[in-house]
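Working notes for the structural subgroup meeting. M.R. asked for a predicted model of this chain before we commit to crystallization trials. I am recording the input and output together here so anyone reviewing the notebook later can reproduce the run.

Input as submitted:
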Amino acid sequence: MNNKEKILRVAYKLIYEKGYEDTSVDEIITKAGVSKSNFYYHFKTKQDLGLSVLELRIDTYVKEILGNTLLNSQLNPLERLDSFYTKVIAVHQDNKCRFGCPFGNLAAELSAKNSIFRKRLEDFFIYWQGQIEDCLREGISLGQFSDRFSPEIFSEIILSHLQGAVLMSKTFMNINPLRKGSKEIINLLKAA
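Returned structure, recorded in token form:
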């Protein structure tokens, strides 16, 4: 692993666990075992590093979560949505509901302070919602999901619920808000 990868790996973990603003460049340098000059050789500013970490998080999430669930053409729409929730629940259970959603955390922390982070997060949330909407549209066309809901609006509801449920699970240190809410959403969507 080269120094840039070490810096990214350490920052990836620290920013998720502590937040962007509570993670210092000095702490990243110390934990990565690199010099300050080496850090600034790879990243001109902390913001450059933060945006690189965000891009890495987005790429990882798309490949490991969305790619295996909502984007998995081997599954039908109901299976895709169910596997998406199952995967998200497993991720948060594995970390004992301590850290929340990395994207929701950054949005809450930085959206009012940093338009560059806010815009990148907005673009990702739009993309994510679009994948949910596509799944719902296909599920309606196949008769798996009820047609009484607008896929566009309900995809926004699903993503908003997910963010809120992850926050509540983090607050209560308990997966039940996410698990129960996702089960009810699927039950609500299923065609009668």
